[in-house]
Structure formats: C-alpha cells, structure tokens
Design goal:
Helix 1 runs antiparallel to helix 2 and helix 2 packs antiparallel against helix 3. Helices cover 71% and strands 3% of the residues. It is globular, with a radius of gyration of 20 Å.
Length: 307
C-alpha cells in the first residue's frame, strides 16, 4: 500500500512540476493586454501549450499503466494510472481556465451547476443508447444472453472506477477548455468533428481495430461532442460517456469477468459484424446531428469569450 501511494504521489508531483513549467513559459510570452491584431496567435499558443500539457498527462498515465503491478492486470487494476490522469487533467484544465479569465462554471463544473444531476441524466441517456446497441447486436446475430459464470463483483466495481476516472481525463481534454476555445473560433460543427477525430485517432494508436474506431469510437465521440456543444456541461457528457463503457462491460457486450451476462452467438451469424457496426454508426451519427441541430443558437454559438 505504501509503495502504490508513493508511486501515485511521485507521478502527480512530476506532472504538476512539468505543467507548472508550461504555465510559467506561457506567462513569459503573454502580455497582460493583448491587442486585437495579435490575438489569434496567442490563442493558438495557449491551445498548443494545453495540448502539450495534455500529452504529458497521457504519457504519465501510460507509464503508470505499464509499470509492474500498476497495470490493469495487476493488483491496482490500473486505478493508480487513471487517478493520476484524472487529477492531472483537472489541474491542467483549472489552470488554463484561470489563465483565460474563465471559471469551472464555463464547463458546467461550478458548485451551482447541478453537477451530480447532470452526471446522472447523462448516465441514464448513455445507458439507453448502449441498450439500443445491445438490441441491434441481438437482432442481427440472434444472440441469447445468459448469466456469466466468470462474473466477479469486485471486478465489475474496479471496471466502473477505471472507466469513470479514465473518462474524466478524456472529457476534460476533448470536451473541456480546448473545445470551448476552438468553438469560439470555428463554431460547434467543426469543433465536434475535429475533437472526435483526434479522439478516434488516439484509439487507433492504442490498438483498437480501425473499423471499430470509425464505426464506434468516432461516432460516439460525435455524440459526446454534440452533447457538450448543446449543453456546455462536462458532467453531462461524462455521464453519457461513462454509461456507454460501464453498460457494455456489465451487460456482456464486451464480455469479461466484469460482465453480469455473456452472449451466445449462433455460428451462422459470425459474418454480421460489419453490418452491426454500420447500423450502430448510423444511429450514433443521427443522434449527434439531431443534437447539433437543436444546438443552433445554443451555448457554443452565443457564449463567446474574449480571446
């Protein structure tokens, strides 16, 4: 227990020292008053520095995730790594919000922003969408679902904690400060597509098959981005994102020891994978487009901030 705590404290302290160096560097190159003629380059400089800070957070996360005993298969279940990711991205986000004269409320993270209510509503909505995915898989494959004999309650709890903390880091990076600054410049549509594309590319780099990334990760990212663009609430997007992961794990759609159920697929339906991914992708895209249409005149379009 002592060694795990030491690893976490050491990782977080290293991240904070490096991030403080980035912020200090930014202050050295940013004047107190920025003229309109040079505003755009400074905005891009801030975004670049935020991206560098986020990349550092991810590198520390990957280091801890691959450190002996701290990975997902180790005693820590990967929780040290995702806790470091969530803490460091939160610290990075709050620093850049303060630098730009913004507050956590600009991301729906203020004390008066009904954070728990938004998180719960997002989780419920994400569960409904994931339930629809399960229905699509069942219809196309004629799968039957039965109790999973390998299920472990502690494994499910660990998976829930891992998904939540991991998704906190992802939402703060992709649907947080950088999203707002990009949306102020380019509008919600470009920003949703750009951040979702980056979200998908990093999953390809992580070893997820490209077809699954295009049909699942990319289109899900479009939904998460559309939710944030419409309601400007990280907790809402986070709840939705977390639900898609937890429900997949618990239901057996991603079968593991964390799954309450396990599907049985008839051998004649093994070729349905591509069709299932296409239908799921269409459902996700239609949902994202519908939310973005509702978003016309919403938060991202009229809550412009001084650059």
């Amino acid at each position: 227990m002592y060694s795990r705590t030491f690893d976490l404290d050491f990782g977080n302290s290293c991240v904070k020292r490096c991030l403080r160096a980035i912020i200090t560097r930014l202050h050295e190159h940013t004047a107190d008053a920025i003229s309109p003629e040079v505003a755009l380059p400074f905005v891009w400089k801030r975004l670049l520095l935020f991206a560098l800070g986020a990349a550092l957070c991810v590198l520390v996360y990957l280091f801890l995730l691959n450190f002996p005993g701290l990975g997902r298969r180790g005693p820590a279940g990967g929780l040290v790594a995702v806790l470091a990711l969530a803490a460091s991205t939160w610290w990075l986000t709050t620093r850049f919000l303060r630098l730009d004269g913004m507050s956590p409320s600009d991301l729906g993270l203020g004390a008066a922003d009904s954070r728990l209510a938004h998180l719960g509503v997002g989780f419920l909505a994400g569960s409904v969408l994931t339930g629809l995915w399960i229905g699509i898989v069942t219809v196309f494959t004629s799968a039957t679902w039965h109790p999973n004999p390998a299920f472990g309650a502690m494994t499910l709890l660990a998976a829930c904690a891992f998904n939540f903390l991991n998704n906190v880091g992802e939402e703060l990076v992709y649907r947080g400060y950088a999203f707002v600054r990009l949306a102020d410049r380019f509008g919600p549509y470009v920003t949703v597509v750009a951040t979702s594309s980056l979200f998908a590319l990093l999953h390809v780099q992580g070893g997820v098959p490209w077809l699954s990334v295009l049909a699942g990760v990319l289109t899900s990212g479009l939904v998460f981005g559309a939710i944030f663009a419409r309601w400007r609430s990280v907790p809402l997007a986070l709840g939705f994102h977390v639900a898609t992961n937890i429900v997949q794990d618990a239901s057996g759609l991603r079968t593991s020891a964390a799954s309450l159920f396990a599907p049985a697929y008839p051998p004649t339906t093994l070729d349905s994978g591509t069709r299932i991914l296409v239908v799921i992708a269409l459902v996700n895209v239609l949902l994202a487009v519908s939310i973005l249409i509702i978003a016309r005149g919403g938060p991202v379009n009229h809550r412009k901030r001084q650059s």
